[in-house]
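Postdoc handover notes: sequence design on the structure in folder B. Input tokens:
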């Protein structure tokens, strides 16, 4: 039973390594892949690889959210989220504009007022982490609102409209004023392979121990 369990865990780690490679590759080469319409991505089952999508519509120039307590290369800042309304009247979408240092938040780059087509990765919303003090959004009166987690459901309640559970990570743009580096912080594929090697070693050791314990000497064989 131990041999089977160790082997299963080894192959599972190899599978995880393959998944992580596919995930990291999708982030690294996202902008080189032709974008598909957002509605197509919404209709299909989204796996571990986040699709590169395009959508046309308008930004909500009033309502925005700042994810606080973010650090990039030793610099403190926030990640700015905007609300985007597709021109087909479908579900609104949170758009991750990127990281900006706190000293520049007061001069947050303005959003386009006209209808525009945007492209980016259609990805899960960032993890909520530890929620201290409950939902602080309804208590704030000024925009953009500051938050320590992004919960599309709570943001939808705050806005009084339904928001997509996934977000759009905008393609990089040096002129945007934001840092857009979307590579996720996940365990490297090499580490998964290292764990797989360990589990396979345990399986081999179990086989050796089994053989030694069940070895039967021929009758009359001296000890």
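Designed sequence:
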């Amino acid at each position: 039973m131990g041999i089977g369990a160790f082997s299963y865990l080894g192959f599972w780690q190899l599978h995880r390594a393959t998944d992580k490679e596919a995930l990291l590759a999708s982030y690294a080469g996202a902008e080189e892949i032709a974008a598909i319409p957002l509605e197509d991505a919404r209709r299909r089952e989204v796996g571990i690889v986040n699709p590169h999508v395009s959508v046309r519509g308008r930004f909500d120039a009033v309502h925005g959210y700042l994810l606080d307590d973010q650090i990039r290369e030793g610099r403190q800042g926030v990640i700015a989220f905007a609300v985007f309304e597709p021109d087909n009247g479908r579900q609104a979408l949170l758009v991750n504009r990127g990281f900006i240092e706190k000293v520049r938040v007061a001069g947050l780059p303005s959003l386009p007022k006209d209808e525009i087509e945007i492209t980016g990765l259609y990805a899960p919303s960032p993890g909520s982490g530890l929620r201290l003090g409950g939902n602080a959004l309804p208590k704030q009166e000024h925009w953009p609102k500051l938050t320590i987690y992004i919960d599309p459901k709570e943001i939808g309640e705050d806005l009084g409209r339904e928001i997509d559970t996934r977000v759009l990570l905008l393609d990089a743009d040096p002129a945007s004023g934001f840092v857009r580096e979307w590579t996720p912080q996940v365990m490297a594929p090499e580490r998964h392979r290292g764990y797989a090697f360990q589990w396979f070693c345990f399986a081999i050791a179990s086989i050796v121990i089994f053989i030694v314990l069940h070895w039967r000497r021929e009758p009359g064989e001296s000890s």
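Context for whoever picks this up: Residues 2-28 form the longest helix (27 residues). Don't rerun without checking with the PI first.
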